[in-house]
Amino acid sequence: MSTRPVGTATRGTTNPNRLRRMDRWIAAAHGRALRASGRPLAVDLGYGAAPWTTLELARRLRAEADPRCEVVGIEIDPERVAAAKPYEEAGLSFRHGGFEVPVDVPPTLIRAANVLRQYEEGEVAAVWARLCGRLAPDGLLVEGTCDEIGRRHVWVALGPEGPRTVTFAARLGSLDRPSDLAERLPKALIHRNVPGEPVHAFLRDFDRAWAAASPYASLGARQRWIAAVGALGADWPLRDDRRRWRQGEITVAWEALAPGGGG
Question: SUPFAM superfamilies from the entry (predicted)?
Fold first, then answer.
């Protein structure tokens, strides 16, 4: 007997290279776990109306993390699955499903990009718990949001135990100030960007550090970003280093930004 997939269909908006920043972070941050897995399996959950981002995830993980990586695209809309089937190849497939994640082995990675924006904030914790419960012991869930052409991203990385970090990533030339990224906060945080909440204080401090780093602007947005992030690290628990900052990224411990200041 078939089981109805859990969840609701997204708008399906997708564009080639939209998730490149997230993919490259995943390969850098999680590549070791993929390589250590006996069967590295990555799930692209809710890939949308076209399979481009799933194809790109497979290509990038195989090139930058582990050439053995198997990728499964999962969509709750059966018509989208049917449209993606012609793109299947060895180690790349598409399946009908939702948050139940219908795969044969626990995945080493679940990527859920632009999936939870349509849900209520109060529903996020249960979805996270369900997805984390499907992960392999060394698995990672990456859930977040980006704009339509992939210039601005914010995502949360979660292990089987729950949320670990929040990463902000951008094409730096698209920013007037770091708080421009607030519009791409994932559902767990976007309504918390108000005075008294940790994520609001973080973005406020980031803007102040960016303003203080204005003398570096003559050297380019990248140097200004690196200087601002370095200063921010004096007060906030950063979980990455200059190599990632150069990519227009900053990763912060989840507990520092969690709603209400709790983990």
Answer: S-adenosyl-L-methionine-dependent methyltransferases (SSF53335)
Q: Which two tokens stand for residue 187?
A: 């559902």
The pLDDT of residue 12: 59
| Exposure b/e, 18-57, CB count within 10 A at least 16 = b | bbbbbbbbbbbbbbebbeebeebbbbbbbbbbbbbbbbbb
Cβ-contact 132, 67 below 8 angstroms: no
Pairing label, strands 109-113, 41-45: parallel
Average pLDDT on 152-179 reads 97
Contact 128, 37 (CB under 8 A): no
Share the mean pLDDT of the chain.
Answer: 94
Mean pLDDT value of segment 77-102: 96
The model carries a pTM of: 0.94
Domains (range + CATH), the chain? 20-170 (3.40.50.150), 172-234 (no CATH)
Contact 143, 186 (CB under 8 A): yes
**Long-range Cβ contact pairs of 80-83 (< 8 A, separation 24 or more):** 80/12, 80/47, 80/48, 80/49, 83/49, 83/50, 83/51
CA-wise closest residue to 238 among 225, 224, 226, 250: 250
* Tens-digit pLDDT profile for residues 227-253: 999 999 999 999 999 999 999 999 999
